[in-house]
Write a structure and sequence with these properties.
The structure is a homodimer. Chain A is an alpha/beta fold. The first copy, chain A, is built from eight helices and five strands. In chain A, helix 6 links the parallel strand 4 and strand 5. Chains A and B meet through helix 3 and helix 5 of A and helix 3 and helix 5 of B.
Amino acid sequence: MADIFLRGAIEEAKRGLSEGGIPIGSVLVCDNQIIGRGHNQRIQKGSVIHHGEMNCLENAGRQKADVYRQCTIYTTLSPCPMCTGAILLYRIPSVVIGENVTFKGAEDLLRDSGVNVDVVQDPECIQIMRAFIAANPGLWNEDIGV
Amino acid sequence: MADIFLRGAIEEAKRGLSEGGIPIGSVLVCDNQIIGRGHNQRIQKGSVIHHGEMNCLENAGRQKADVYRQCTIYTTLSPCPMCTGAILLYRIPSVVIGENVTFKGAEDLLRDSGVNVDVVQDPECIQIMRAFIAANPGLWNEDIGV
């Protein structure tokens, strides 16, 4: 059973799926509270920048630097280079990743930059992405620039 | 005199400034045509993800992978880690940077990843950012996560 915050990210992924979107979700946690949540918006907004983590950060709004420094960002899938870059820009010190079986992003860059990375390999996260990719390979490739 | 595409990015930066925003602009060029343009939207949209390059990519819309592979992105300022990550995600092979005197982003990561990086050191780009940072140090620090 995923922890409560990863569960929040999974709920976001499922919300995306129910909207016809790519099922990747994220929550931003500070001081044991969710201060932002979001999910991939490629289909819903026709967006190329609203990946799950990006949409979560955008929804969290303009936070002070010292808030980001106390945050953990939860994401159902290993962060791509763009989302990794956003985490590094705002110096978020900790990332919990639902899974990196279906896609491995720029985790090494996170670790090399001193970010604490925890990969859970949550079975539900893996199942959601496996099913989506199998049914929508073109969309999925578009989302990761392939 | 900046080339026509860098001029387009500078026009975007000035548009941002005229809206009360952070003056960083960008254009995306494919086949000698501008296919997207944008500018930083931190103030205008209350956005933490719409940096100049990100707003430009968003405005260009959903492009096919092989379009991005033929693009050059022009930006008035050295790309931060987030914008660098977006360039790497979509495998844009070439970046023209107006200046890196007032801020140096993740150019080394771009170069190490095989991206062609051209830093112009355009006097107008430098002047615009110097004036903005001097007048708005807090806003500027917020934009780069400091």
